[in-house]
Design a protein that fits this description.
Blueprint: E1 10-11, H1 14-34, E2 41-47, H2 51-66, E3 70-76, H3 82-94, E4 100-103, H4 113-119, H5 131-139, H6 147-158, E5 167-171, H7 178-187, E6 191-195, H8 202-206, E7 211-214, E8 232-235, E9 239-241, E10 244-246, E11 260-261, H9 268-288
Parallel strand pairs: 1-11, 2-3, 2-4, 5-6, 5-7, 7-8, 8-11
Antiparallel strand pairs: 9-10
This protein binds NADP nicotinamide-adenine-dinucleotide phosphate.
NADP nicotinamide-adenine-dinucleotide phosphate binds at residues 148, 171-174, 176-178, 195-199, 202, 215-218, 221, 236-239, 268-269, 272.
């Protein structure tokens, strides 16, 4: 039997791709600002004192600043009523100087995230969490879609991963990762298998995947022998073990088996924020007719 050639695994540099896209956005915005048009503006709403949420907001606002967007933060106390939060969102929805509204999750337990998501103006819902945008995604229409799945699609496209007819296995069925990425992959004619915590024979299913997306939050769940040789493996997981960030995929072990893999650092993460900027830019373009 002839030896099968060794597989050289491509390790995606999500940061590099993110920087390239952000550079293009910054140039576009600078050009319009020089012509007297106001820059895109994102409103971020933080309820409570969760340090992780505060740090995510900080990162998003820093990213806005770097591409020349304005951002405004609305910080509300933990005991904010749902009514008060909805009143703020209504104000932001009607503010012509705001292009995108993002409510950082998780919200305190007494606030229903679905009610909040439904209160966002669909044309300012830059996280793609509201029912109108989720419906548009389901129906194959244009809309503002969840940022992490958009970032994953960009990574797959930039690396020329063939999706038509490919078998894509998605582990996780959340509203921000698993469900929307499954729909986006289906829209590109992949055959998608959605897996979750009750899925039987998970490893076996993964072994049949040409494209494997893990959005779970279980460190190193995906082992080397779960990977079909040459598969594209997208690791969304972001957990910590002994203070160190760890993904859902055993990154070291899949080297030489996967055709492509995203690292848990500088992989999907930078692309998520980039797609938030891109969604905000899209709503701004529409509002400013540029
Ligand atoms: P989530 O809402 O907790 O969803 C996790 C999903 O994984 C659920 O559908 C769950 O199944 C499934 N699951 C849990 N344990 C499993 C197991 N042992 N086998 C198979 N499926 C299992 O989480 P999420 O918000 O989607 O986030 C997932 C991970 O991605 C987290 O680590 C998060 O931090 C990370 N993340 C990263 C980014 C980024 O930009 N890098 C963005 C978003 C999320 P059930 O539905 O049956 O419970």
């Amino acid at each position: 039997m002839p030896d099968t050639p060794p597989i050289e695994t491509v390790v995606v540099n999500g940061l590099e791709l993110a920087q390239e896209l952000r550079g293009q956005m910054a140039d576009e915005v600078a050009g319009h600002v020089a012509a007297g048009i106001r820059p895109p503006s994102l409103a971020v709403v933080l309820v409570g004192d969760d340090p992780a949420s505060a740090s995510y907001i900080k990162g998003k606002r820093r990213a806005c600043k770097r591409v020349g967007f304005d951002s405004v933060e609305h910080k509300m106390p933990e005991d904010t009523s749902q009514e008060d939060l909805l009143a703020l969102i209504d104000k932001l929805n009607r503010d012509a100087g705001i292009d995108g509204v993002l409510v950082q999750l998780p919200l305190p337990k007494h606030i229903d995230p679905n009610v909040v998501a439904a209160s966002l103006d669909p044309d300012k819902d830059v996280d793609g969490v509201g029912p109108i945008n989720c419906g548009r995604l389901l129906m194959g229409d244009e809309g503002l879609f969840a940022c992490t799945p958009l970032g994953i699609m960009e990574i797959l496209d930039r690396n020329e991963i063939a999706l038509e007819g490919a078998h894509a296995v998605v582990i996780g069925r959340s509203m921000i990762v698993g469900k929307p990425i499954s729909l986006l992959l289906q829209r590109r004619n992949a055959t998608v298998t959605m897996c979750h915590s009750r899925t039987r024979n998970l490893a076996e299913l993964c072994r049949t995947a040409d494209v494997l997306v893990a959005g779970v939050g279980v460190p190193k769940l995906v082992k080397a022998d779960w990977i079909k040789p040459g598969a594209a493996v997208i690791d969304v997981g972001a957990t910590h073990v002994d203070g160190e960030p760890v993904g859902d995929v055993d990154f070291e072990a899949v080297q030489g088996i996967a055709g492509l893999v995203t690292p848990h650092r500088r992989g999907v993460g930078p692309m998520t924020i980039t797609m938030l900027l891109q969604n905000t830019l899209a709503t701004w373009r529409q509002r400013m007719s540029v």
